[in-house]
Amino acid sequence: MKSNRKPKFHIPMASPDITEAEKKAVMSVLETTTFSMGPEHVKFEQAIANHVGAKHAIAVNSGTAGLHLCIRAANIGKGDLVITTPFSFMASSNVLLFENTIPIFVDVDPVTGNIDVELVSQAVIDLKAGGDSAKKWLPRKGAENIGELKAILPVDVFGQPYDYDPLRKIADKHNMILIEDACEALGAEYKGKKAGKLGDMATFAFYPNKQITTGEGGMIVTDDDKLATMMRALRNQGRAPGDTWLEHSYLGYNYRLDEMSAAMGRVQMTRIDELLEKRAKVANWYFTNLKNNKALSLPIIVADTTKVSWFVFVVRIAAEYNRDDVINQLATFGIPSRPYFAPIHLQPFMIEKFGYKMGDFPITEDLGNRGMALPFSGVMTEDHVIEVSESLAKILK
Ligand SMILES: *Cc1c(COP(=O)(O)O)cnc(C)c1O
């Protein structure tokens, strides 16, 4: 498309926030000979454990790896069922497919975009009952040899964890594990409780667009000693405590986080309050500058979210506009934006494997059609936010 306007600034979609302190910490690792499994990953784990108030923190080399280890440690495998959301980043469902586990999608709450607790409750009752009542929750195909209904895997969408009290009750009542995908929610709180403490296990992610970054990286947190020991073994090629370098008690992975990344993460955690405050400030500028734009619905933070951790700023475009056209027009102003999320059940391999169709999860699809992530990071200036907002006002006349 031909540019009809020179952008005033270069506005990136997302940006890490790195200071001299992070650079120094990474360089210091390079002065040593320990690039893996050294003191930095231990210190980084302690920093996250302290922040969350969790007994164990286990550093891994991506959020996806962390979620995968949660599934493995919970002994969830072939044919087992896990209730989760189709409105998420692909990884939260992919980790189930890695183990030939069947994701049972339920639709989401239209306000927060998080899993709909009423539907979870109904799905659990029906799936436990089996037979015809179970059938309506199962995919059209790919669910022939069914194991056990083992877990609920909710996602803290866009940095807002919701609604965990009823989810905890359902999980306890039916003896199911609750796994929190907190990859978008480091620092957030639900009813005064920290994201990461809301399930039996949780995972954070540190890709460069997240609240803190290590380049690639992730962290699992849990209060459960046995699960923690298992996940430490699985991330390290299946070596149980006491195994030597060439002894492998379990089928494991190399999901270790290197020391340079851990050093960066450790320093980022000393700045966590500052990093979250800067992001909140940018979100507030967006609220101020977009509030009169009738074509947009702005994010809604519910009362139970005692602290939101701004990961992205996602607006919803009124149904009379075409979201993708708006994205393309914004691009001609030199401003990047993205659809966020794309419904998981409509990804090509999901359709092929499970036979999903458009219309299966209407709220997810509606949010998927109208949701648009605007440029967002803690290093954005107010001028950038105004530029984005004014460009949107011109497009959405
Ligand atoms: C970022 C993210 C992940 C994990 O991402 P990685 O790139 O593997 O670190 C998982 N789930 C959600 C919802 C995410 O946003």
Strand content: 5-15%
- Shape, principal axes of CA atoms: globular
Low-confidence stretches: none
Largest sheet: 7 strands, mixed
What's the arrangement of secondary structure elements?
Layout: H1 20-30, H2 39-52, E1 56-60, H3 63-73, E2 81-84, H4 91-98, E3 102-105, H5 117-129, H6 131-135, E4 149-153, H7 164-173, E5 177-181, E6 189-190, E7 193-194, E8 201-205, E9 218-222, H8 225-235, H9 259-270, H10 272-290, E10 296-297, E11 313-317, H11 323-332, E12 338-339, H12 348-354, H13 362-370, E13 371-374, H14 382-395
Parallel strand pairs: 2-3, 2-4, 4-5, 5-8
Antiparallel strand pairs: 1-9, 6-7, 8-9, 10-11, 11-13, 12-13
The structure holds pyridoxal-5'-phosphate (PLP).
Residues 62-64, 88-89, 91-92, 155, 181, 183-184, 205, 207, 218 line the site of pyridoxal-5'-phosphate (PLP).
Report on the architecture of this protein.
By secondary structure, the protein is of the alpha/beta class. 39% of the residues lie in helices and 13% in strands. It has helices at residues 20-30, 39-52, 63-73, 91-98, 117-129, 131-135, 164-173, 225-235, 259-270, 272-290, 323-332, 348-354, 362-370, 382-395, and strands at residues 56-60, 81-84, 102-105, 149-153, 177-181, 189-190, 193-194, 201-205, 218-222, 296-297, 313-317, 338-339, 371-374. The strands form three sheets. A seven-stranded mixed sheet has the order 1-9-8-5-4-2-3, sandwiched between helices. Strand 6 and strand 7 (193-194) form a beta hairpin. The longest helix has 19 residues, at 272-290. The protein is globular and about 60 Å long. The chain binds pyridoxal-5'-phosphate (PLP). Pyridoxal-5'-phosphate binds at residues 62-64, 88-89, 91-92, 155, 181, 183-184, 205, 207, 218.
